[in-house]
Every structure is written in C-alpha cells, then in structure tokens.
C-alpha cells in the first residue's frame, strides 16, 4: 500500500478519533458538539488553532489533557 495513502488514513483516524472523543465527553453533559469551540474543562480556556491538531497538540501541551 502506498505510504502517502497510509499517512492520510492515519491523519483521518486521528481527526475522527478526536471528534468522537469530544462527542463522548459533551453529549452526556448536554453540551453542543458542533458550534462551541474546544475548551479546557478545568479552566474553560478556549483552545487556539495549534491546540486543535491531534497528537501534535497533545505533545506540545506536554501531555496535559
Ligand atoms: Zn485549563
């Protein structure tokens, strides 16, 4: 299989995984899953663009979730 295709599938997997994690967290709390920006549940800080990239943001935030 083409390596570029594998990388694309991996990136799509991280994006969908990130979204489904958001949905699993927000739906039981009755929060909006489409319009509201991502935020820190501890301090309600709205996440910036670089904080929204799966895996890279996790590493740049030093594995704080
Ligand atoms: Zn916070």
Flag low-confidence runs.
none
The largest pleated sheet is described as:
none
Structural class label: mainly alpha
Span from first to last CA? Answer: 34 Å
Tell me, rounded to a whole number, the average pLDDT: 88
Q: Work out the helicity level.
A: 40-55%
- Give the names of the bound compounds: zinc ion
Q: How much is the radius of gyration in Å?
A: 14 Å
SSE pattern, N- to C-terminal: HH
Q: Quick one: overall form?
A: globular
Q: Please report the total strand number as a whole number.
A: 0
Instruction: Please report the number of helical segments.
Output: 2
Q: How large is the share of residues in beta strands?
A: under 5%
Model description:
With 65 residues, this protein is an all-alpha fold. It has a domain of 28 residues. It is built from two helices and no strands. The protein starts with a helix and ends in a 5-residue tail after the last helix. The mean pLDDT is 88. Zinc ion binds next to loops.
Brief summary:
The chain has 65 residues and is mainly α. It is 45% helix and 0% strand.
Secondary-structure blueprint:
Blueprint: H1 3-26, H2 56-60
The protein binds zinc ion.
């Amino acid at each position: 299989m083409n390596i570029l295709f594998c990388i694309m599938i991996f990136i799509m997997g991280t994006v969908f995984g990130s979204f489904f994690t958001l949905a699993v967290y927000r739906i039981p709390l009755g929060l909006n899953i489409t319009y509201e920006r991502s935020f820190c549940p501890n301090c309600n800080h709205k996440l910036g663009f670089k904080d929204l990239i799966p895996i890279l943001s996790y590493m740049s935030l030093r594995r704080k979730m």
